[in-house]
Amino acid sequence: MKPPILQTHHYLVNIENNEISMMNFKNSEVDLIVYDKNAFNTKNYYFSYKLHSNDKLTHPISFGTYSYEIIGINGFVRKFKGKKKPEIEVILTNTSSKDEIKIELHNIPDENYTISLENLYEKTKKEIKSASSKYDTVINLEKTKGWYDIKIKTENNSWHFAGRTEH
């Protein structure tokens, strides 16, 4: 009997340009489910997507009070919640290293704007103050063998990223 061939996946899901952006960087297909938690008990609660090889899809967001959860394979979860349209843009990407992720914050209004970054695996939380409109950080995932569970919060919005890096 031949051993199974494990397929690695490399796909990203973020809020970009006021919509949920889903990108697949590998040749294998990826199934994603988008839940609009505010539309529970309606026909617009559940959306199923198949990201084909090197594909990009988007899903519209109804801003105001919003709550979206995106589920993928291998423990991949994204949760985007807020009371209004986010003032900042939060992007999580995989780095070229298998055991690192990069978090980019864009459009930070000023240095008094409060942003918290919590690493649930490391049990650490820090306040981010940036004199510039951008902030980047790389998180090493060697201790957790590529697994991550990160929450970023502002006064009105939260981004929750969980999963495992694969290349």
Descriptive overview:
It is a single chain. Strand 8 and strand 9 form a beta hairpin. The protein has one domain. The strands form 3 sheets. Strands 4-3-6-7-14-13-10-11 form an 8-stranded antiparallel beta sheet, with no helix packed on it. A 3-stranded antiparallel beta sheet has the order 1-2-5, with no helix packed on it. It starts with 10 loop residues before the first strand and ends with a strand. The chain is an all-beta fold and 167 residues long. It has strands at residues 11-16, 19-24, 30-36, 46-51, 56-60, 66-71, 77-82, 89-94, 100-106, 115-119, 124-128, 135-140, 147-153, 157-164. The chain is built from no helices and 14 strands. The relative contact order is 0.19. Pfam families: PLipase_C_C. This is Bacterial phospholipase C C-terminal domain-containing protein.
Low-confidence regions: none
What is the percent of helical residues? Answer: under 10%
Q: Average pLDDT across residues?
A: 91
Strand order of the largest sheet: 4-3-6-7-14-13-10-11
Task: Provide the gyration radius in Å.
Answer: 16 Å
Distance between the termini: 26 Å
**Counted beta strands:** 14
Q: Provide the domain count.
A: 1
Q: Counting H and I runs of at least 4 residues, what is the number of helices?
A: 0
The helix-strand sequence is: EEEEEEEEEEEEEE
Q: How much beta, percentage-wise?
A: over 45%
Q: So what's the overall shape?
A: globular
Helix/strand structural class: mainly beta
The main sheet comes to: 8 strands, antiparallel
Question: What attributes does this structure have?
Answer:
single chain, 167 residues, 3-stranded antiparallel beta sheet, 51% strand, PLipase_C_C, phospholipase C activity
